[in-house]
Amino acid sequence: MTTSGEAERALQLAIDSGPADQAPQAAFNLGVLCEDRDDFAGAERAYQLAIDSGHADQAPKAAVNLGVLREGRGDFAGAERALQVAIDSGHVDLAPMAAVNLGVLRDDQAGAERAYQVAIDSGHADQAPRAAVNLGVLREDQGDSVGAERAYQLAIDSGHADMAPMAAVNLAVLREGRDDFGGAELAYQLAIDSGHADLAPKAAVNLGVLREGTGDLDGAEQAYLVVIDSGHADQAPQAAVNLGVLCHGREDFAGAEWAFQLVIDSGHADLAPKAAFNLGLLREDQGDVAGAERAYQLAIDSGHPLAASGARELMTQLRGGDSRGTTGAACGRTV
To answer: What is the dihedral angle through the alpha carbons of 104, 106, 109, 112, rounded to the nearest 10 degrees?
Structure first.
């Protein structure tokens, strides 16, 4: 088995006396090796050798790695210089990647926007949509909602498997904050239709909450059922909690019990105890004291900081015979 020391000596030999076309790759590999063993000074020297070689691929690759290394060590000015080398190389893949990294690094809006725009203008299949999402977030943080919407739309139009639905969710939240509920619905639906494993269920939960807020309870129920059917580890239990609360409010007690039980059966660390608490409230409302006690006990046994303490208090009231009219608000609703 080759030791790291032996590997380093072999790479150094390739740098010092190997073929000229192999020395830059050896320098890059030496930089990675040094970085892996926390020899950051050695990694910087090796990456700089690769950069100084001017090799079409290894130089910009080393510049990106050097930029990330320096950023991680708090040398932001040095990181910016290294990333700019990669950008200036015009490398079809590495220049846009460096531009996105530089946009994240820059703490001034104008500089960050310029960097993201470089990546967007490159038309790179991955980095351009990523830069567009980041630019949208940056503009939104600065209060430029119109500019943010334009940036998110660029990412959506790219059709990127991850960035397009992410941009659609961000755009929907932006529109919702401006009370453009119709526009928000359209954007959430784009994310749902993408079929993204995580973002589609998240969008459907948010759509359900939006529809509840606008009084479209049937539409909200449909959205929550879409998420439940997805089986997503986090979003499906959340949708089921929301659906249970919705059904309880509509006095659809059977539907609420079914939804809360789904969450309990999921075993979700946060939401199952909350669903048990809510199920206890539901059963109390129907006069099922024994059933309420069983549900509250599940919440108590979970040790959940909110649901367990709330269930313990209501269980005490219930057993004391003075629980009528004292039940707390249903817990578990989040967006």
So the answer is: -60
